[in-house]
Design a protein that fits this description.
Elements lengths: L1 E10 L2 E11 L4 E5 L6 H9 L6 E6 L2 E2 L2 H4 L2 E4 L11 H11 L4 H14 L15 H13 L5 E5 L7 H16 L4 E4 L3 H7 L2 E6 L2 E7 H6 L5 E6 L13 E6 L2 E5 L2 H14 L2 E6 L4 H9 L1
Parallel strand pairs: 3-8, 3-9, 6-7, 7-8
Antiparallel strand pairs: 1-2, 1-4, 4-5, 9-10, 11-13, 11-14, 12-13
Helix pairs in contact: 3-4, 3-5
Amino acid sequence: MLTIESVSKRFGERQVLDDVGFTVSDGRLTGFVGGNGAGKTTTMRILLGVLRADAGTVSIDGQRIGADDRRRFGYMPEERGLYPKMKVAEQVAYLARLRGMAKAAANASTDRLLDRLGIAQHANDQVESLSLGNQQRVQIAAALVHGPEVLILDEPFSGLDPIAVESVLGVLQEQAANGVPVLFSSHQLELVERLCDDLVVIAEGRIRAAGSQDELRRAAGPQAWELLTADDVGWIREVDGVRVVEFDGGFAAFEADDATAQTVLQRAVQSGTVASFGPRIPSLTEVFKEVVR
């Protein structure tokens, strides 16, 4: 388990991170989301030892991380970090060798990843000749080629078409299934919602929420419900303890505690045919807006 605890960082007069702390559990995909300038990339660079925190610690399984530990990390930066004139397979294998892999193992791992990511046909092409999306896939292969024990990815889905997104999603899920703690940032909340087990939300250098998707949805605000009937449900506005947030004839979305929601359901059953009734599950976008406002 990767743990960041009470980390702060200042650049001049600007407090970039303020008492940041969260965990990335083994075998789980953790989405790290926040607006531009929220502190995501700075946090990742501290995890990797690229930047030094002013305060706080980073540890794995309770042991403070050192340089040797970070050699076991896989990292994909948001900025391109590839040699543009090197051939794709040559470059990925070279990076694996820098991580201590034997030549045969590096070549085998490179071939497997390029095939898994759908870019094996570009193995002998120069990186600069590829589309930006394919360059992104090469960058992901470079982060994975040495079999990292921790994986940190900064905007891994940027510039990918839907087919490439699916191949990358599959690879990340495989890593987590093998017990690797995976932390990735993304502005694409719909992808984070599909992929991540856990979520960390940062805004203005502070962690605003952290936990599983279910935990964050439950904590996002008042309990909301949806009711759909064959009849007009305008009467719902008259029920004590109900706040209607959406209404359209036989449909109503409303906030209420459990007991009041059951009162609404009983009246709806007495009044006509109930097509559906249940809790309204907020989207990740709604959760994000709720915790950062």
